[in-house]
Amino acid sequence: MSYKVEKVHPYNAEQGKKEQVTHMFNEIALRYDLMNGALSLGIDDYWRSDALKELRKYRPQHILDIATGTGDFAIMAHRILHPEKVTAVDIAEGMMEVGRQKVKAKGLEDVISFGYQDCAAMTLPDNSFDAAIISFGVRNFEDIDRSFQEVLRVLRPGGVFLFLELSTPGQSPMKELYAAYTKYVMPFVSGLFATEQRAYKYLPESIAAFPQGREMMLILKKNGFRNIRLRRYTLGINTLYISEK
């Protein structure tokens, strides 16, 4: 089964989504962290840290951070959960290079490692991770079902899958505020940074097309996960999904 968001591409309908997403993130890699901070006013750090605290009871020692980007979620996971190892993977080498520099500056090379992995066809061993985490990356997947099945495969029995994804508020006044923000504020701020405008037009389009709430919970169930639950943040702007193998 295909989902609407899989057909939302950063640039055009002719080239594959994975190739376009890779190009887009490599293009904005050096400005990505600065842009994210400006666009979210720093609230994304709160979302991520609060989400990771949900994993404390699982005591994961080997964590897989998928779509790691510039590595912030991996670094935060180390700070909050103190695992033995974090494997951070992505398809955008430009983003991971920024992450490697951060990890090196913090002296965490022995704990956090980076590597190229296509989440729909990972070369990682079966049953090898206690937890898999994703921060705002699932809507960029070219094939959600295959990617979720791969996550299930590499998780150990009882392992936990946690991901955050931006969502569209359904109630007033946040619904109207969000619409105005994406239409006017986001393009203006991204323009100030002289970044690739298409990347920040793709953002609200992909959020609007993403399966949300109960629909996403049913997708997780269909792909073999259990004990599925969610938590909404900031009146529905962001949603946390947690499930187990």
Question: What do we call the CATH homologous superfamily?
Answer: Vaccinia Virus protein VP39
Q: Distance between termini?
A: 21 Å
Counting DSSP H or I runs of 4 or more residues, the number of helices is 8
According to CATH, the fold-level topology is Rossmann fold
Q: SSE order in H/E notation?
A: HHEHEHEEHEHHHEE
> Which runs of at least 5 residues are low in confidence (pLDDT < 50)?
none
Structural class: alpha/beta
Oligomer state of the chains in this structure = single chain
Q: Main sheet?
A: 7 strands, mixed
Mean pLDDT: 91
Domain count: the total is 1
Looking across the biggest beta sheet, what order are the strands in?
Answer: 3-2-1-4-5-7-6
Number of E-state strands = 7
Overall geometry = globular
Q: What CATH architecture do you see?
A: 3-Layer(aba) Sandwich
Q: Can you summarize this structure?
A:
With 245 residues, this protein is an alpha/beta fold.
Topology, element by element:
Elements: H1 17-40, H2 43-52, E1 62-66, H3 72-81, E2 85-90, H4 93-105, E3 112-116, E4 129-135, H5 144-154, E5 155-166, H6 174-192, H7 197-209, H8 214-222, E6 226-233, E7 238-244
Parallel strand pairs: 1-2, 1-4, 2-3, 4-5
Antiparallel strand pairs: 5-7, 6-7
Helix pairs in contact: 1-4, 6-7
